[in-house]
Amino acid sequence: MTTVSTSARRKARHYAMQAIYQWQISQAALNVIEAEFHTDNDMSKVDTDYFHELLHGIVQHLGDIDGAFAPFLQQRSLEELDPITRALLRLGTFELQHRLDVPYKVVINEAVALAKKFGATDSHKFINGVLDKTSATTRAVERRADKSS
Fold it and tell me: Per the confidence metrics, is the pTM higher than 0.85?
């Protein structure tokens, strides 16, 4: 089993967020978007398997993902969210639901870092709050273990 570097995963999330953003705007086929990313970007230091899993997994499980974080949107609807915030919440929630090997704190920190880079002013605070509440339900056992240690 090969170990994947933290930076390769970080880059995979970076590109996955951009690809999900593009999909949300264009509704283009995922394979087309994925191929464009491989053509237009240097993917040599990217965990491309993780990029693929994120991109396809988010779209495949979209209803479950949106349903998991929607209750925590503070009286906003999903449609009211800007596309970057929506993409980051979907990315983070997918990881919380489907990548139990990634600690919930890492998931939240990575989404917050991307929000600081790409999101609207202070969107990282909103994303942090929504994903923290989402993790309380999706990762309840992990959070309890974290508090007891």
Answer: yes
pLDDT in tens, 88-137: 999 999 999 999 999 999 999 999 999 999 999 899 999 999 999 999 99
Domain span holding position 24: 6-148
| Model confidence at 27: pLDDT above 60 | yes
Write the CATH number for 35.
1.10.940.10
Task: Report yes or no on 63 lying in a domain.
Answer: yes
Tokens of 13: 């999330």
Q: In angstroms, rounded to a whole number, what is the distance separating the alpha carbons of residues 55 and 106?
A: 19
Q: Is there a domain that residue 1 lies in?
A: no
Asked whether residue 62 is assigned to any structural domain, the reply reads: yes
**Into how many domains does the chain fold?**
1
CB 54 within 8 A of CB 21: no
Find the length of the chain.
Answer: 149
> Rounded to whole angstroms, how far apart are CA atoms 22 and 1?
32
